[in-house]
Amino acid sequence: MILRFDDVFVPDGDDARRWAEEELSNQRYAEAKPTWFDLLARDIARFIADLFNSDNTANVGPSALIIVSVLIFAALVTVLIIWGRPRRPSAVRRLHGGLLGAEDDRSAAQLRADADRAAKAEDWDEATILRFRALARGLLERDLIDPTPGATAQGIAREVGMVFPAETASVRAAAVSFDDVRYLRHPASPQSYAQLAAADDRLSALRPEAVPA
Length: 213
Fold this sequence. Notes:
By secondary structure, this protein is mainly α. Helices cover about 65% and strands about 5% of the residues. It has helices spanning about 15-25, 25-30, 35-50, 55, 60-85, 90-95, 110-120, 125-140, 155-165, 170-180, 190-205, and strands at about 1-5, 10, 100, 100-105. The strands form two sheets. The chain has a two-stranded antiparallel ribbon with strand order 1-2. It has a two-stranded antiparallel sheet with strand order 3-4. Helix 9 (about 155-165) packs antiparallel against helix 10 (about 170-180) and helix 10 packs across helix 11 (about 190-205). The protein is extended, with a radius of gyration of 25 Å.
């Protein structure tokens, strides 16, 4: 039931509760929730801060504090190696949203498979578009790049160049191939597709720590 006072609508208790439930069921609230790893990292940080506050340091020797800190740091490093660092909510959303001018939820592996099928059919234009999207999606899935919404192929290439400097030229060339086909309607060739696919394969195998600074 809605009660009306002049021109203001005031919901009763049931309507207010229903509206609140509908609003909170929106997907953006679920995406913004911290992960278990975020909560764990927060709790560990609080624990370390409590160890070193003035109330506790008087009761615990400095050697014990150092040992505890080293153990906690080692545990954090192990967790990061196994599971990786927490992913930002914005990056999570872009994993399943628009990429390079298209709303496409396919994973990098699916995009590569579709690109290979297009290449076998000698549809080099479609293969080029799909393979560059696979390149970008793969790096996004690994949380190595964080392109802004609406990022261009050249913008993604610049981000990749900062992570893998040795691949800057090859990724820029791949972005040019994508732009030529997608926007300038220049036909792709087997050679240009092969170069793009080779760059994607190399990036898939690289790790940031293996690239010289």
